[in-house]
Amino acid sequence: MTRKDLPDILYNIIHQLGGKPNMMEIFKKFWKEYGSNFTTDDDIFYTWNYDIRWAATQLRKQRKMKPASTRENTYGEDVSSKGIWEII
Fold first, then answer.
1. What is the pLDDT of residues 32-71, one digit of tens each?
2. Quick one: how far is CA 51 from the chain centroid?
3. I need a surface site. Which of 18, 22, 30, 40 has the fewest CB within 10 A?
4. What is the domain partition of the chain in residue ranges?
5. Measured between alpha carbons, how far is 30 from 1 in angstroms, rounded to an integer?
6. Looking at the DSSP assignment, which residues form a beta bridge with residue 18?
């Protein structure tokens, strides 16, 4: 698995969790399903949490996931609730 695989993996996890789970549910499911694939020799073992957040940004850029709830995204745009990652 490489970082490039993560947007598709993340999308599938969010879908499996009902389309709009909270971040902790996503992280737990990701680690449960994929954590055993990593060893301490793999960079992703140390960076997976950051990389999942990067994957979420990629899905937002592809318009497959709603924007995050931030001050910058509150101008009438349909955003996810705080801490929730929601696919479109």
1. 999 888 878 877 778 888 999 999 999 999 999 988 766 5
2. 8
3. 40
4. 3-73
5. 13
6. none
